[in-house]
Amino acid sequence: MSPSDTERPSGADSPSEPTAGALTAVAPRLRALRRQASLTLEAAARAAGLSPAHLSRLETGQRQPSLPMLLALARVYGTTVAELLGETVAGRDAVIRAADMEPTAAGGWTYWPAGAPGRGMQALRVHVPYGSQGDVVRVHPGEEWLHVLGGRLRLRLGDSTHRLAAGDSAHFDSLTPHRIAAEDHDGVDLLFVHTLLQSPTAALCLGPTPGDVS
Fold it and tell me: Residue 207 and residue 214: Cα distance in Å, rounded?
């Protein structure tokens, strides 16, 4: 579900609508963070499970990144999705108020930050619509924990399929190929926590990187 993800969606490179809102500022930030990390386009794309051409289009604003892509790139660059989107939180307060959780839409998902930036984990509240990205398989270093708040979730881990209802949780090594989808037409609501790789080079040292996709 999260982001240095290997994506295998059908029609992955079909044209998309221009970015809007906060996403319009993501492209230059992606380029600046990659250069700050001293990573080539090829190395950063490989670490995030993308093709260099796809990452180049993200950096030039020709493609709109999905939430999984933002999560993958945030992990590679040792930052958070909130910081990629330019959302700043004063200080690092232990308490995050509901009124301060601004929703962001990306790739069909809606998510709310449920933790402070600059930590070793990122916590999100996520709504996954029915039919959204159910064909995307993800593989990346780290761990993920999710808890179903409402609706029903279909979780594919390796060769096993699990169906989770409200109150159910899953905690897994995200090097296991994984895929999620909402079972209900109203979608599914999750609490989601994943580990961040604080060193941009760490992602390049954790075993073989799956092949790129275009």
Answer: 22
Q: Does an H or E element contain 78, and which?
A: none
Residue 192 near residue 2 (C-beta atoms within 8 A): yes
CA gap 86, 22 in Å, rounded = 8
Residue-wise DSSP of 11-34: TTTS--PPP-GGGGGHHHHHHHHH
Ramachandran assignment for 207, one of left (phi > 0), alpha (psi -120 to 50 degrees), beta (any other): left
Amino acid sitting at position 137: V
Residue 58 is encoded by which pair of tokens? 């993200």
pLDDT tens column, 56-93 = 999 988 888 877 788 888 888 878 777 777 765 445 66
3-state helix, strand, coil in the chain (%, to 5): 25, 25, 50
Q: How far apart are CA 4 and CA 39, in angstroms?
A: 15
| 71-75, 178-182, 205-209: the lowest-pLDDT one | 205-209
Contacts of 111 by beta carbon, 8 Å cutoff, 6+ apart: 67, 81, 103, 104, 124, 125, 126, 127, 192
Kindly tell me the burial class for residue 123, based on how many C-beta atoms sit within 10 Å of its own C-beta (0-12, 13-18, 19 or more).
Answer: middle
The answer to whether the predicted template modeling score (pTM) of the entire model surpasses 0.85 is no
